[in-house]
Amino acid sequence: MEDLDTPRCVTGADQQIQAQLLACGLSWDEEVTWQSERQAGYQKAFEKLNSIQLMYPCTCSRQTIASTLSQMGIQTPRNQEMVYPASCRPEQFITYSAEDLKNTKLTWRLALPPDCNMTFVDEALGKQSQQLNTQVGDFVIRRNDGLFTYQLAVVVDDAQQSITHIVRGEDLLSNTGRQIYLQYVLGLPTPQYLHLPLVLEEHGEKLSKQTLATPIQTQNAKAALAELRKAAKHLGLGQLPDGENITIAEWLLAATHAWKA
After folding, report:
1. Which residues contact 213 (CB under 8 A, 6 or more apart)?
2. Do 151 and 143 touch, CB atoms closer than 8 A?
3. At 51, which helix (H) or strand (E)?
4. β-pairing, 126-131 with 165-169?
5. What is the per-residue burial (b if ≥16 Cβ within 10 Å, else e) of 44-71?
6. pLDDT under 70 in the chain at which residues?
7. DSSP per-residue codes, 88-114
């Protein structure tokens, strides 16, 4: 359960997610874990990056970064991340003291090498390439409130759980290059990735709580199966059973065969 950003976590949301998955016939093989309980693993990875001198502290606010980019004639399109202009990047990298690392008022960034171009083959979208220096810049691995970032946490989580395949939405495609680079410098394996098309609303925005999207209906088996059928249609899965007497388990088995085909 990705609950790193504790100030934004809604109480009970994790239990609701699990209940909805179970209602759709989707269960898990091992015990559920929460990122908020896995800080020691993230801290260990953070300290390793420090020991190999690949990170540095940053005091830039978002406003400062935006102002610097504007002065450079760079405008960031709406809903896109600002490329960090390396304002705080030192000329030489060092190993910081334990006392330095305890300073939670600093943002910590990963220092990228020159020409850091990451390529991978997506199982759905084919060959992908991302130039991290020009498209992202030195990215944050720990925020100035002391919270580790999604990028670092999921890399550590995937390795710890021996994840071999990651299936997620296309909105996370731009994160993959950063995660693969982190896997490389931390000496962790790289899973296979498959990014799925998003479900969009009428204005082209993805369905989410930010856009006040209607939650899926899982109050009974009939409603849950209807939601699963919507998902299958969106993914282009055809020739699935549509009778009213089909069980969720039977339908999921048919959908699995259709997906593999």
Report:
1. 201, 207
2. no
3. helix 39-51
4. unpaired
5. ebbeebbeeebbbbbebeeeebbebbee
6. 79
7. T--SS--PPPHHHHT-TTSEEEEPPPT
